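Input record (one chain):
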Amino acid sequence: MRIERFRWWHIADVMPIEADLFGDEKWSPAMFWNELAQRHFYRVALEGDDEVIGYAGLSTTPDEAWVQNIAVKRDGQRRGTGRALLEALLAEAARLGIKQTLLEVAVDNAPAQRLYATYDFEPVGIRRGYYQPSNTDALVMMRNA
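The corresponding structure, as predicted from the sequence alone:
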């Protein structure tokens, strides 16, 4: 597996992953285009002959960073891909000297919450009904560098 810059041509490859993992709450291609146009920090995890098995993104301001998304194909999970993507995002925040990184995660996504906790993310709030159309709450987690 290798981590590389997410490019516009990867969007078509991430859409089936989005649909499988997030269903009606998946991002649209336009949302990914917008993230790339805003020059947010995005990476893909590639395997074999450039097969996209995961992706992640980070938006930054001078004071804080927000993990926009981390997703790994179901058959690629539990092999360190999510961890490698998160480490790439955190390394970029550190490189920029950002001291605070935040993220939102579904309250019912315990595996992701455990991963984030191993990187010192702690719960700091709840966003009620954040994920639509399921109306699922999001747990806001924060990490100080």
